């Protein structure tokens, strides 16, 4: 045995077991040899064999065998068995060594870090967040409690989700579900029977105080709803203090500028960028009012020449109208909850006008007061049946849930709606896509089609696409957009195009010409004119009907239908062209051969050409 071995007795026993295993040709020889080499090379002295587990090759079983061997040795020689140390400190005494040697330095294994439990912090504007802050307004000293209905009414303004209806019609849980979490964490207690009343426990009050101190600092007032932070009013209404210049810089989405000017498009880009950032603080910016040189026809309403010819518009001065949001009455949460959207908008300070819209789901109008509405009617502009002249502004929104968007792509309504939105003449189109629970199979099947449709709207159609996670987010977005448009338009003049100007040419052509001449001006038409030119059945020309007939064929987009109409102007011309062809490939490939030199996205494949020939030929 080497003289420098710190534990010669333990090493001797390991060597005996190693030799026995070698004689029996046992596989245990390798185990004992590895343990023996580690024990022989170890410079530390062990008071008890269990301490040898730190060595390479000595596990719990081998150390237990060494312990039994040591106990047998002590019994035979009348030596007391050394106690098993519970702590990691070692003494300088050597129990197993025959000769005393110098004490080795103590070595301690690294202490295990004890992870401290983090205090509970609810997510901002979640159900638990709102419930704790609402209960935090009660009197703590008197142990005041509140009923469920009163608590939900108090907490609803502080939460993004609803306490009364699920955010998704396919789900059954509301924001009140968070109360179960608070009770399990013993932050909220109840009392009373059969009617429960809720109050904060001592731990709950600690969480409430920390939340208030974090949110407001020394001022413990409750926070304002998300997205409605106010700037100093300076005596003006809060709706005029919605920022158009973000304090925090963010990457803005790329929007393609149309050919009819860049001034108003840049304004729209700033609007939608502002509305896409829920947590930015916006500063008030007073828009510049353009100076128009015009000839007076009325003290307030003036006819302005858009160009040296007779293209006249009616100028509606700022301050004589109010921007209102018009919501399609068919936009409902469920068939049994039809007033949810309008009721939630009213809670956010926006009172929508409910009516059936000929196009889109939401649009914004300038509602003129009764005095100037009469003047507009005398100028043959305001022809609204209710007597209030309403001017359609330059923004319209189409809302689609994911399941509805998939259905419109399948049956062709998606391309038809995009075509009508483009034809309406409204410059700024927002396409809002709302998430919805889809099965894994359906999501995988139509995932690429959805991505392609969204990309096409942004790149090809120049629509602004906004995606929301639930209906409550959509409602808050509509409220912010309404307040932003109020601050933008109510301080500017609106140039109204008389209805008689659309008799000779299309609306889009007139609006494009005026916007190219004066890109800084805001142009609008009356709601009656907008309804007449966007209606699906009224005032439709043969060309419109022909294009819709072509687009009923799956695969024929609006662009392809226009290219087909240019070559065969009428349905009769297309039918006669097919009759003049012989059956077979000559007839099937007629459309694809004529459009073979068109740009790729307007090119008609041979399979689609054969389908058109089957229908029209």
Characterize the structure shown.
It holds the Pfam family WHD_MUS81. One of its GO terms (biological process) is mitotic intra-S DNA damage checkpoint signaling. Its cofactor is Mg(2+). Residues 227-239 have a biased composition (Basic residues). With 617 residues, this protein is an alpha+beta fold. The protein folds into four domains: 1-106, Orthogonal Bundle (DNA polymerase, domain 1); 127-216, Orthogonal Bundle (Arc Repressor Mutant, subunit A), CATH 1.10.10.10; 321-492 and 523-534, Rossmann fold, CATH 3.40.50; 542-616, Crossover junction endonuclease EME1, DNA-binding domain (DNA polymerase, domain 1), CATH 1.10.150.670. Helix content is 40%, strand content 12%. The protein has 22 helices and 16 strands. Strands 6, 7, 8, 9, 10, 11, 12, 13, 14, 15 and 16 form an eleven-stranded mixed sheet that branches. A three-stranded antiparallel sheet has the order 1-3-2. Strand 13, helix 13 and strand 14 (464-468) form a beta-alpha-beta unit. Helix 1 (8-23) runs antiparallel to helix 2 (28-41) and helix 8 runs antiparallel to helix 14.
Annotate the secondary structure layout:
Blueprint: H1 8-23, H2 28-41, H3 60-77, H4 127-135, E1 146-147, H5 148-155, H6 178-184, E2 188-191, E3 197-200, H7 202-216, E4 245-246, H8 263-276, E5 282-283, E6 295-296, E7 302-305, E8 312-316, E9 321-328, H9 340-347, E10 353-355, E11 362-368, H10 370-378, E12 390-401, H11 402-411, H12 413-423, E13 428-434, H13 440-459, E14 464-468, H14 471-489, E15 494-496, H15 507-517, E16 522-526, H16 527-534, H17 542-551, H18 558-567, H19 571-579, H20 585-588, H21 590-594, H22 606-616
Parallel strand pairs: 9-10, 12-13, 13-14, 15-16
Antiparallel strand pairs: 1-3, 2-3, 4-5, 6-7, 7-8, 8-15, 9-11, 11-12, 12-16
Helix pairs in contact: 1-2, 4-5, 8-14, 11-13, 17-18
